[in-house]
Predict the structure.
Amino acid sequence: MDVLFLSRWQFAITTIYHFLFVPITLGLSMFVALLETCYVTTRHEAWKKQCLQLVKFFGTIFLINFAMGVVTGIVQEFHFGMNWSEYSRFMGDIFGAPLALEALTAFFLESTFLAVWAFGWDKLSPKLHCICIWIVAFASNLSAFWILVANSFMQHPVGYILQNGRAEMTDFAALLTNPYVIGQYSHTFFSGIVTAGFLVLGICAYKIWKKSATEAFVQCLKGATLYTLIGLFAVMVSGHLDAQYIHEAQPMKLSSMEALWETADPAPFAIMANIDTEKHENTFELSIPNAFSFMLYNKPTGAVIGINELQKLAVQQYGPGDYTPDVTGLFWSFRIMLAAGGAMLLIVLSTAFLLWKKQIERFPLFLKFLVLTLPIPFIANSVGWYIAEAGRQPWIVVGLQKTAAAFSPNLTPTEVFISLIGFTLIYLALAVAALYVVIRFIRRAPETLPDRRDA
């Protein structure tokens, strides 16, 4: 229970709390914008009124989520100065630039126009009001881009020199065009669509099950099903392409995800395995021959370097040390993510089939089940980020600084432990409060929403 251990746990817990809200912000902002676009462009009066109610309904949920995202995100930035001062000293010249731009070009834009949108229903024309929410959606996703520019440098450093014991930026354009950004951002963007889509699916299913504004929510369910289906296919393609790039940029992460200890050509894909991290081998493995090579090379053959060989190469390059991440955690996290993705695809296709047959209202058990599937994308997001961050250990900046050299040396375990418990309890209370407010709102709306604009 030293300072490093506790600091890592503190940052991990606050990050998980924060990332419960981020994907909803990314995806729901666009869904609300699409709904309001339907409201502005449709000439069908009945559907126009329903669209307006749906925009206000899901817009309110978005506002609650946005507030929680801001509260949980701000604290993260303080961690860099409080718990990770050596990292900030070493990386501040590079890491600070995209974070500053995130605040100046994205967060301020997002929060300003969200306020205009929230309070401008009776003050702006319908088209101008719709433009405001599209600006919010753009700014939300721009914010994610800047954060991932910073994170991608930690995964794959580019455009820098080492000088005076620090990493200093030499090429800002290289940071923006870092190939790692493309894979991370596309996967995050589409996972946001999927997460928000499942949130809308669950809410619509609940309202249809309760026979509350059924017609409007059936129409909304149709749009959400298409929205989520597009996101699912896109996130799978982006994940596949990202894995192929990680094979080149971070082979240790990829081999650890597969628990591939020895180099293989062709390499199998293990469905399950009993991993012995002490002996560096799998005592049991159920695998599909050639499948892992096919994932990486789009053909059934191709060498994948094993963990043991990569460890030897890392020792030769960086000196003595253990350069193997949490193989067991990465292995099972990857499979949980894949299983969650497959389950979500099956659920959405089943929903689409029932909607196509116009039978969705005749299956209340399926509607209840759809509500219960809400946690699946959040689980997939959490294990996905665990893979991204734990997979680069023991590095905090791959090849440049180890995590063990990045924490604040003057902190005591007691200080970090007290703040860890404090943050965890406060965040838990906030999450419970936000969930209570959202559930209560969903149950009573949209029937009680005032329709302040003539439809």
